[in-house]
C-alpha cells in the first residue's frame, strides 16, 4: 500500500493542485486553461523526443485543431465536445498525410521539414482570407457542453474542468503507450534503428504512428486554446509557437509525461509575470530560464523535483 501511494501520489498531486488553483485564485483560471492546452502539445512532442526527433512544426497541428473547432462551431455544432472531436480528427488526418513524407527522414531533416510544412500552413491561413479570416482570424462561439447551454462564466469553468479530465486521461494513455511494445520501439528508434529493422520492425512505421498520435494531441490542445480565448488566428501556426512547444517540453523534462504539464504551467506563469512587469524583455527572461535549465537541471523541472524529493527522503 505504501509503495502504491509513493508511485501514485506524485502523478496525482500536480493535477489536484491545478484543479484547486482556480478555486483559490479565480482570476488564474484562463491562464491555467491555456497552460493545459499547451500541455497537450508538449505531451505530443514528448513522444517524438523519446524517439530522438524534434519537431519545429507542431504549431501547424495546434492551429489546425483550433481552426477545426472554429469551423465546427460555425457549420456543424456549437458544442465543445463536438468541436474537440473535430479538432482531434482533423489534426490526426493532417498528421497522417504529412507523416507519410516526414517519417522517411530523421534528425535535422525531420525537424526542418516539419518547420517548412508549418510555414506553408501559416501562409495559407494568412492568405485564404475568405476561409480563415486572414490576419483577423475567426471568432469561436461555443457556449454549450454535451448539449447543455451555458453562460459565458459557467462555460469557462466547464471548459477548465473538461480540459483537466482530458489531460489526466491523455497522461495515462501516453504513459501506457510508452510502456507498450510500440512505445518501446519508439524509444529504441533513438538508440538503434538498425537493430529494430533486423528484428523485423519498421522504424518508419513506428515513427509514423508516433507522429500521428502526437499531431492528434496537438489538435486537442488547439481546440482547448480556441475555446478558451474565443478566437483563432494564423499566428497560432507560426514557427515561434512551435519553438515554444519544444521549449516547454525541455523545460518540464522528457523523462516523464508530467514534465509536459509542469513545463506548460511554469512557462505560462513566467510569461504572464514577465509580460506584466517586463513587457519588452520577457523573451530574454525565458531564454535565461532555458539556459539555466540546460546547465543546472538537464532532466527538466520534473527531474529536478525528483532529485530534491530524493534528497529530502534520504535525510529522513
UniProtKB/TrEMBL annotation:
It holds the Pfam family BPD_transp_2. InterPro entries: ABC_transp_permease, LivM-like. It is a multi-pass membrane protein. One of its GO terms (cellular component) is plasma membrane. The chain crosses the membrane at residues 32-49, 56-74, 80-102, 109-132, 152-174, 206-225, 245-270, 282-306. It is found in: Cell membrane. GO terms for molecular function: branched-chain amino acid transmembrane transporter activity. Keywords: Cell membrane, Membrane, Transmembrane, Transmembrane helix. CDD domains: TM_PBP1_LivM_like. This is High-affinity branched-chain amino acid transport system permease protein LivH. It comes from Achromobacter agilis.
